[in-house]
Write a structure and sequence with these properties.
This protein is mostly helical. The protein has helices spanning 21-24, 28-35, 37-45, 61-67, 75-85, 91-96. It has a domain at 18-96. The protein is built from six helices and no strands. The relative contact order is 0.15.
């Protein structure tokens, strides 16, 4: 038996393309308007503003390709659930709730920064 291991990202498939990454970091609204206009409409519906930047995009292509895995939840399903529930949260996010990274807030953001 030959076993091998590899790291995989198991997450919803991103609606963004590789060419969007630089702009996501400077003008996320423009990319969201282009790739997921329904999301921008939902933000407006619930009187929320679209975030100015997205610093991180997870790509699950290797898990889908190598493992034949397909996520149940993606942007389209999330948007449909928000519309069905008439809430600014998907049904799965309501079930899971908010999970913070730490019990405390750091001046640098959600993670402590070591200046050494």
């Amino acid at each position: 038996m030959n076993l091998s291991f590899a790291p995989y990202i198991v997450s919803a498939t991103s609606p963004f393309l590789e060419g969007d990454l630089a702009v996501l970091n400077t003008d996320a609204r423009a990319v969201i308007d282009k790739r997921v206009p329904e999301l921008a409409a939902r933000f407006k519906q619930f009187d929320r503003s679209v975030f100015p930047q997205i610093e991180r995009v997870y790509v699950n292509a290797a898990a889908r390709r190598d493992l034949g895995w397909e996520p149940k939840y993606d942007m389209n399903r999330m948007l449909a659930e928000i519309v069905d529930a008439k809430l600014p949260k998907s049904i799965i996010s309501q079930q899971i709730g908010s999970k913070g990274y730490h019990d405390e807030v750091f001046a640098e953001g959600p993670f402590p920064v070591d200046d050494t």
